[in-house]
Write a structure and sequence with these properties.
Blueprint: E1 3-12, H1 19-37, E2 41-49, H2 53-61, H3 66-84, E3 90-93, H4 97-112, E4 116-126, E5 131-133, E6 152-161, H5 167-176, E7 181-182, H6 184-195, E8 201-202, E9 204-205, E10 221-222, H7 224-229, H8 231-234, H9 244-251, E11 255-261, H10 265-279, E12 286-290, E13 293-295, E14 298-299, H11 310-317, H12 319-329, E15 336-338, H13 340-369, H14 383-400, H15 404-425, H16 427-434, H17 438-458, H18 463-472, H19 508-525, H20 536-540, E16 544-554, E17 562-567, E18 574-578, H21 586-589, E19 593-597, E20 603-605, E21 608-610, E22 613-614, E23 616-619, E24 622-625
Parallel strand pairs: 1-2, 1-11, 2-3, 7-12, 11-12, 13-15
Antiparallel strand pairs: 4-5, 4-6, 6-8, 9-10, 13-14, 16-17, 16-19, 17-18, 19-22, 20-21, 23-24
The structure holds 5'-O-[(L-methionyl)-sulphamoyl]adenosine.
């Protein structure tokens, strides 16, 4: 039995997780579920990266200790585990003692190899990157090439790692193991970076307190990237009292695979192997880099206010639909853009229509013809068998390559063929004209069997829904092995429960209109970037006024919108539509004073004309209304 050790990056705890972070864990979860079905002994690790200046600053900005911030964000990650159906074996936090043991042991070994020395470190430092840049790497006006924000000059005594010594060993590694970095194009990037010359790397900080004390160097803490990378072995017990997992999955392991976003490839394909070579530990067998999710074609970032939070989507569509979309839409390795529109289109066409309708059609017919059971006759000789065989082969080949979208396409080809087969055989007519014949039995059994194979292939992608589909087509227990992709598994005369709707169709227009309403709320919440401050005149273009809510009611067919009638001191009340229904009940708003933007152009939301906008702070997408601290006449200007 092969061993398969899989890791995600460990996530920074300076903000709540967004879709981009969840993507890597979803990919990992899908892959590891597949490997389990392929018969590997697997171990899947994720966790959080909690030290360093960024976290320290983010916590102090809130007036709390870094560990309090870390605990809060970790709770979010742990909560999402259940929501998104993650099956990781361990969650490592770099603030745990077991992690410190690993870090100390690796540093002892690197020191023993003679690869550490102390020197003055000077340069332009970007704190969000925790990285020094040379003058020529900077953007215009001395800004960070990644973040575009101003860098600071830093000069301090640090511990350095002799990275330059590993230039040739790394180039040898890439030559001997061209698969070390995937996709192949990324290996070229890494190789040219190393070929252009490696400078020694500063691996400690004198000015950052929030970190692991550097062994043997008082006053220095371990540089956050050296600290973080070691999680991949400290989580397995390296440096601690019990090293069985380390020996099994790292030292003697067959596959040691790191999944990473393209932005952190250099750390994993250059620094990490160099640290390991120095410490005399085995290297990962592969580092696989994926692309970035954008939002509506723009970079997703907290400061732009356009990040997608997984919770909103999961609430509405279920975790498995989100998992499906992300894996189907992004060609693994390339960038992709998230949009509400693309999400709904895929949901409606692939899930509601292709999958949901096929299941319900074939199950309804079989139940009707065979008294609530699967057909009594199986069929081992028909056109679908060849397609199913090809599908299983294509699917497996794609999964070995981490080509998730291709694997799903293969399953959908079988679904399309099965539909075509049913259209040609017309079982709905056969029932009426000939009744429950042997022929009808075979046709419907084939339909169920094709769906069963598709659902088996879907188990790693959509664990809950695929199990439901399997139960719906008469296979009560989801199979544990990929052998179930072979033709013939649908039982005869087995109970077929009444089909439940799997993916109710979404009204795209209504959904998008709602999204616009809540986006309006969030655009007000977004802090203006430092570089684009507005003048006081620009601010006064917005007429902010106090108003009293006279009446409030839900907008029909919308779960986010409320229709408000408000008195803005104009004699006649105004109607506003606000995306606050998930946070406020209509009755608790009546009589309250709120702040509205009074001179906004009218907009129609779900058929209701809105004449203004209510202001609310947005806390992780949840609106919190603003009220004056004491009652004031309606229409009072807010400035
Ligand atoms: N803490 C480091 C990783 C240390 S690993 C030893 C870090 N953390 S991070 O929270 O900033 O990012 C974690 C992962 O999320 C990275 O792989 C990054 O590429 C990924 N993503 C963050 N935003 C993303 C998108 N918008 N799209 C896809 N992945 C993105 O880096």
């Amino acid at each position: 039995m092969s061993s398969f050790y899989l890791t995600t990056p460990i996530y920074y705890v300076n903000g709540p997780p967004h879709l981009g972070h969840m993507y890597t864990t979803i990919v990992g979860d899908t892959l590891v579920r597949y490997r389990r079905m392929a018969g590997d002994a697997t171990y899947f690790l994720t966790g959080t990266d909690e030290h360093g200046q960024n976290i320290e600053r983010a916590a102090h900005k809130e007036g709390i200790e870094p560990i309090e911030l870390a605990d809060r964000i970790v709770a979010e990650y742990v909560r999402l585990r259940g929501r998104l159906g993650f099956s990781y074996d361990d969650f490592i936090r770099t603030t745990e003692e077991r992690h410190r043991w690993g870090v100390e042991e690796i540093i002892r070994r690197i020191e023993a190899a003679g690869d550490l020395y102390t020197a003055v470190h000077e340069g332009w430092y970007c704190s969000p990157c925790e990285t020094f840049y040379t003058e020529k790497e900077l953007g215009p006006g001395k800004t960070c090439p990644v973040h575009g924000t101003p860098v600071e000059w830093k000069s301090e005594e640090n511990v350095f790692f002799r990275l330059s010594k590993y230039q040739q060993p790394l180039l040898d590694l890439y030559r001997q193991h061209p698969d070390f970095v995937r996709p192949a194009t990324r290996l070229n990037e890494v190789r040219s970076f190393v070929e252009s010359g490696l400078r020694d790397l500063s691996v400690s900080r004198a000015s950052v307190e929030w970190g692991i004390p550097f062994p043997g160097r008082p006053g220095q803490t371990v540089y956050v990237w050296l600290d973080a990378l070691i999680n991949y072995v400290s989580a397995l017990g390296f440096g601690g009292p019990s090293t069985a997992l380390y020996e099994r999955f790292w030292e003697r392991g067959d596959t040691r695979l790191h999944l990473v976003g393209k932005d952190i490839l250099r750390h994993h394909a250059v620094y990490w192997p160099a640290f390991l070579l120095s410490a005399g530990l085995p290297l990962p067998t592969r580092v696989w880099a994926h692309g970035w999710w954008h939002r509506d074609g723009r970079k997703m970032s907290k400061s732009q206010g356009n990040v997608v939070r997984p919770d909103d989507l999961v609430d509405r569509f279920g975790a498995d639909a989100v998992r499906y979309f992300l894996l189907r839409e992004m060609v693994f390795g390339q960038d992709a853009s998230f949009s509400d529109e693309a999400f709904i289109d895929r949901y409606n066409s692939d899930l509601a229509n292709d999958l949901g309708n096929t299941v319900s059609r074939v199950v309804t017919l079989a139940r009707k013809a065979f008294d609530g059971r699967t057909p009594p006759e199986r069929c081992e000789d028909n056109l679908l068998i060849a397609v199913a065989r090809q599908t299983a082969a294509d699917y497996r080949a794609a999964m070995e390559e981490l080509a998730f979208s291709r694997a799903l396409e293969a399953l959908w080809r079988l679904l399309a063929e099965a539909n075509q087969y049913l259209v040609v055989r017309e079982p709905w007519k056969l029932i009426k004209t000939e009744g429950a014949t042997e022929q009808l039995s075979r046709v419907l059994w084939n339909g169920l069997e094709a769906v069963r194979i598709v659902a088996t292939g879907l188990l790693p992608f959509m664990p809950r829904v695929a199990a439901e589909v399997l139960a719906a087509v008469g296979s009560a227990e989801p199979p544990a092995s990929l052998d179930a992709l072979a033709w013939g598994g649908t039982p005869t005369n087995a109970e077929l429960p009444e089909p439940k709707p799997l993916f109710p169709r979404i009204d795209k227009e209504a959904y998008l209109a709602e999204g616009k309403a809540s986006e309006k709320e969030t655009t007000m919440e977004t802090a203006a970037p430092e570089t684009s401050r507005i003048s006081i005149d620009q601010f006064f273009q917005a007429e902010l006024k106090v108003a009293t809510v006279l009446a409030a009611e839900p907008v029909p067919k919308s779960n986010k919108l409320l229709k408000l009638s408000v008195d803005v001191g104009e004699g006649t009340p105004r109607t506003l539509v606000a995306g606050i229904a998930l946070a406020y009940r209509p009755e608790e708003l009546v009589g309250k004073q709120v702040v509205v933007v009074a001179n906004l152009q009218p907009a129609k939301l779900m058929g209701v004309e809105s004449n203004g906008m209510v202001l609310a702070a947005s806390l992780d997408g949840k609106p919190v209304l603003l009220h004056p601290a004491a009652p004031v006449p309606n229409g009072t200007r807010v400035k």
